Amino acid sequence: MSLLFLALKSLRNRWFSAFLCVLTIGLSSALLLAVEHIRASARSSFQSTVSGTDLIVGARTGAVPLMLYTVFHVGEATNNVSWASYQRYANLSSVSWTIPISLGDSYQGFRVVGTTDAMFQHYRFGAKRALEFKLGHAFSNTDAQAVVGSAVAEKLGLQLGAKLSVSHGLGNVGFIKHDHAQQTLVGVLAATGTPVDQSVFVNLAAIESMHEGFDGSARLSPAKPESNTARDAHEGHEAHEGHEAHDGDAHKPMEAKPPKAITAFFVGLKVRPMALALQRKINDDESEPLLAILPIATLQQLWQLVGVAEQALGLVSIAVVATGLLGMMMALIATLEQRRREMAILRSVGARGHQIFSLLLLESAALTLAGLALGAALITILLAIFADQLAGRYGLFLSANWLSARTLTGLGLIFSTSVILAIFPAAAAYRSALADGLSVKL
Amino acid sequence: MSAVAIHNLQFAWPTRPWTTGSQTSPAPTILKIANFTLADGEKLFLKGASGSGKSTLLQLIAGVLTPTAGEITVLGQAISRLSAGKRDQFRADHLGFVFQLFNLLGFLNVVDNVLLPCRFSKLRAQRALTQGASLTDAASQLLVALGLSNAVGLPNAVCAQAVSRLSVGQQQRVALARALIGAPGLIICDEPTSAIDVEHRERFMQLLLAQVEKSGAALLFVSHDPTLERYFDRTVHLADINQAAPFTEETAQDLAEANS
After folding, report:
1. CA-CA 20 to 30 A from A148: which of A162, A246, B63, B94?
2. Whole-angstrom Cα distance, residue A66 to residue A55?
3. Min Cα–Cα distance to chain B from A341, Å
4. What is the CATH number of the domain that holds B220?
5. Which of B84, B88, B108 lies nearest to residue A351, judging by beta carbons?
């Protein structure tokens, strides 16, 4: 108690150097906490990009590419899943729900996802959160309607009722505009922090019908001059099987015409442990080369690719903290020479060698604790100020609560490291105090 | 029982195995004292030139150093036989020091400086509580008795005063209050007046002797200033009792360097 009193009084007397030490440790520990919190949040938001889905099934490719184009909308499918195969699995008794998706179109640079209203019922992200509507409602499975993610609505300034002309292909300009098949915007989703925000959802049937429109354009669509060129261009995309021509009328009820193929589908099972068995069954399907992946496993695989940057960030922040602690140790060592008289006085009133040693340790511990408290305060304040902006701008959802086993371990490690480092100045003070005795000859 | 009793004391700086590059001769003996006694309640003036081993002798009595040979008994306790920790505790409990300069901790106020020994000795704290209603009160009473309240205002103002604002003479009186708090049995003063100007020296000596007398402690006062002899019961010349070879400033420095 007495030693703590002396340590604190002594620090107060050297308040400026103590303040700088606290500031250094505070800033560096705040950096460490921020990096760890952002890393953990990015990881969890990344890993919860899709949740509640037991299997994702697409044409045979790599697990990571399938995940990338179905969930992250990065890259393109090279092949499709036939409608028949989809139906066969969708109707299995063990399957609770499926969401078919058809990719390959874009609207003003945003990916268009052809799907059904099952998307809004069954798709889950984060902690099993369903998609919520900020405005409007889901599209019906029969009408030429669209739902857009929050970022799309915000960036393009879309209002409900807007007419969207979907382009074929993924460029911003689009190769072709399916102007003949405009989609009416009926819903805007709430922000999710996932690629859903960047997506335009339209009816699966609508996608089929607008591509049909090209082939029958001369007859069925309003005769527009560009539709012929559009058709020519469209015919160049042979790989895009899902969009292959169907005979028929675009203005007929769409559910009458099931698509020939889709890009992929999400599967939810009635009994979760069945996932592995079904995955094997799908992967062994001899009628069509398909690939089923477990989203969680593949997300982890993907994160490992990102992990190098994560580790680099972590290392940098650890180095910063180490610099802060070394700085504090140097500040303590630098004052020792001036403090030899102080130590001699303490010795004369009966302070033992180990008490001199403890005094220095206590000072270091007090400085570190104050620094850690400052760091914790800083990170809390910064989170309160910037969490919303980060969520809005980068889709990075940071919870206000940065406390976790890892951050607490980090704080504990900083503290114990500083106490361990303080052994050096403490031992130096101990030795010089014993050597000096009661009289210091400076 | 005597306050200090020394028998056949010898002291040489211990040679450390890792510093004896040239294993020529063992370190010279600095102190060799056959007999020295300071009686209970006695006020003794120990006279010696600088470098004569005064400080070393004080550190031996204080238990900061241990003798190479012989025995030192302080207040009936053979401190040379105690462990280092016990010696430190003994010093905290029973000894009060006033040094030449820089007695006080700059980061503590006057009262906290005075109460410093009570932080390391329960015994001193308990005894101080018999002197005043509280520790602060005990300290204030001592400060008033030493004439400090006149210099810096009311006792309350003294408590909060930063020691750096005091004159050297006032600082020495605060140091004296610290040495006296909790009534230790032996007060050791090492040239306490050499930094004080002559007019104030007289007053300091009077206060010192009056307070020591009041507490009943023995006083070991070390100085090279012969004009102070008159205040004391007895004077001892260190050169007379120290049978070791005369020691000069130069050899002290050589030794210090050899040992650093």
Report:
1. A246
2. 11
3. 7
4. 3.40.50.300
5. B88
